[in-house]
Amino acid sequence: MKDELKWLQYAKKLQAIAQAGLEYSKDKYDIERFEEIRDISIDIMHNYTDIEHAKIKELFASETGYQTPKIDVRAAVLKEDRILLIKEKIDGLWAMPGGWADVDCSLKENLIKEAMEEAGAEIIPQRILSLEDAKKHSSLPMPYGIYKIIVQCRLVKINFKKNIETSEVGFFSLDELPALSLGRTTKEHIKMALETNEKPFHEAIFD
Fold it and tell me: ATP-binding: present as a keyword of the record (predicted)?
């Protein structure tokens, strides 16, 4: 388990306070103060990470209302002792199919959609393997709270086609993993998925 850095905790807390204040305040002077608090949180994130200032501001400014965790869904598509991974165009690294959950889709629908779009894989989601608080399993700075849901899925068929998000797909065993996109998928995620594949009564892991 990784302890989140204090500066990151402060930046995220300031952002959450500012976001709620901007949503519910009516007084123009209060609004100005909350905008200043948000700017401070953006400066903290910018000075301690590699994320561009404009990108952080865009991310924070797009959030409204009371701040809640984002949900990252990942499909653990297994084939014997191997797992399906996709190569992300955005960073050239590999991860389980998935991404941010769409608000108009259920968990199953999100997984089915992501697997098809990113890997050309038709899948059947079967059971939740884990639901984790991402900051407890990664040392990477994250501007938001994130819940990551990993679901074991059965592969029906696969027919990868070129798309705007991914450039390759492949099945990999634990001892032959490519370079992973660690904000999306870690070796520990894959190890857990492969181990639980042999446990018909696996109890979901959650923080």
Answer: no
